[in-house]
Design the sequence.
């Protein structure tokens, strides 16, 4: 359940960004999460909402944008969409592939409504 | 730029605000990696430990794979080989048991209790290192027994070792791939039990290599001492800088 401590880190970041910008009411938190990031969506969303309940941001919308994983085979150069960290290259069968996307775990943006605190 | 306070956020178009169900809004672009703070402290640890002449090894496994027993055996054998500069940071949800066991081996150990936490993070081990007050040492960090969560957290180690016992099943690397993908070394432990379990080392290694083709393997039995010389020899070479990860 590392999602809980990661949710705490997200909230710390949100608090810092809101202090830095110092205006408006937070409406939504937008996250980018790769399909092979090791983050369980449901556990993370649940944890984030739980942690937010203890802050002035209780009830804000959380939007999670998934990024499909992509890998490139080191042996033949084929690019493909891996289902796991050990999906062989569909062209040559090699396991020597490296992920080029799908491991993202970012706080992308905050949506703030102006004129309300 | 935001017209309310002048901050560097992006004004949203009318359509965008409508889509998001708000009257007047803006978007603050952050694009920050959630693990960036942990990674920053981990980099700081790596620098500090390097300056103190310490080489840190992060030991990860499921509970019961034999991390503490392997450490006891390793400390004993390294001592017989004339190397006594070892220190240990122990991570468990609760109890001081493992640190107490390690101290009985004659080396300093600090226990971290994570309570509700399922892994160690860079900040926890930074404090534990301060408490240890060691230099020029091989620093073992025994992570919380868990094959999922510790995978994401860099502690500042120079080497990550995943321990797997032969009783756990040959497909464990496929079931828990993140841990094997992030490791440098895989120690296959409890090999003395091979005659009694349905385990095939070639199949186990093949599965681990599908996830991470750079893994280096050691086969050990902490209770019988099998493979401990090769493992300790590697640790000394790594500490001396003759082996790279």
Sequence:
């Amino acid at each position: 359940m590392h999602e809980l401590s990661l949710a705490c880190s997200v909230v710390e970041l949100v608090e810092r960004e809101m202090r830095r910008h110092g205006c408006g009411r937070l409406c939504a938190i937008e996250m980018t999460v790769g399909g092979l990031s090791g983050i369980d969506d449901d556990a993370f969303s649940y944890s984030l909402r739980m942690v937010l309940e203890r802050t002035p941001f209780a009830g804000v919308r959380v939007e999670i944008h998934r990024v499909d994983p992509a890998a490139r085979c080191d042996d033949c150069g084929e690019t493909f969409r891996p289902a796991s960290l050990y999906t062989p290259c569909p062209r040559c069968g090699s396991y020597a592939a490296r992920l080029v996307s799908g491991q993202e775990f970012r706080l992308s943006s905050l949506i703030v409504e102006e004129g309300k605190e | 730029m935001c017209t309310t306070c002048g901050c560097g956020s992006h004004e949203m178009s009318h359509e965008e605000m409508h889509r998001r169900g708000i009257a007047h809004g803006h978007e603050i672009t952050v694009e920050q990696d959630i693990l960036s703070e942990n990674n920053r402290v981990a980099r700081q640890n790596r620098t500090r430990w390097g300056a103190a002449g310490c080489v840190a090894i992060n030991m990860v496994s499921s509970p019961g794979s034999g991390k503490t027993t392997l450490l006891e055996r390793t400390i004993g054998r390294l001592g017989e080989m004339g190397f006594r500069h070892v220190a240990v940071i122990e991570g468990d949800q609760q109890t001081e048991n493992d640190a107490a066991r390690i101290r009985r081996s004659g080396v300093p150990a600090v226990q971290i209790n994570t309570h509700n936490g399922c892994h160690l993070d860079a900040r926890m081990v930074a404090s534990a290192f301060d408490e240890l007050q060691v230099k020029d040492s091989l620093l073992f960090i025994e992570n919380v027994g868990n094959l999922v969560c510790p995978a994401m957290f860099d502690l500042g180690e120079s080497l990550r070792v995943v321990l797997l016992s032969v009783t756990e099943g040959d497909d464990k690397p496929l079931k828990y791939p993140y841990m094997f993908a992030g490791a440098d070394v895989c120690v296959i432990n409890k090999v003395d039990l091979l005659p009694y379990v349905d385990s095939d080392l070639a199949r186990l290694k093949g599965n681990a290599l599908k996830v991470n083709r750079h893994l280096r393997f050691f086969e050990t039995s902490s209770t019988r001492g099998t493979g401990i010389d090769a493992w300790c020899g590697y640790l000394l070479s790594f500490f001396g800088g003759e082996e790279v990860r």
Remarks:
- The mean pLDDT of chain B is 92.
